[in-house]
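<instruction>
Derive structure tokens from the sequence

<record> Sequence and structure tokens follow
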Amino acid sequence: MTQDQTEFSGAKLALFLGQSLLVIRRDDRADIPWPDHWDLPGGGRDGNETPLDCALRETREEVGLVVPADQVIWRVNYLRPHGRIWFFAAHLPATWSAQVVLGDEGQEWQLMEPCDYIRHPKAVPHFAEQLDIYLGSPEYQRRA
């Protein structure tokens, strides 16, 4: 395991169901970052879990989906003021949307066109930036 994998603070997953991106509207509370913004599944690291384990666990807790690790086709990490963040992307069939169940966090979920998320005034900016990078990647282009 590399240094980047052992020292990180959290992980996010850009999860596509069909052509659409699964997004979660964050709670509207002053004590959390980016209140009432559109977010992606993911969150903070628990214990010694790997970045991918973190993203997949958070996805299961937040929207009830057990994403197979082999469906994750892209990964990148970057630094934020509170530490290193991992950003992953996975694609599942649109029919998986019938299995989505919002967990304890967030006000609602919805499917959004990826370009709409990037331009949305209430998208978490650094996640929108990473999504934009992914949309320009060969991994995404092969799927389009």
Remarks:
- The chain has one domain: 3-143.
- The radius of gyration is 14 Å.
- The beta strands are 10-17, 20-25, 38-39, 42-44, 72-80, 83-92, 108-112.
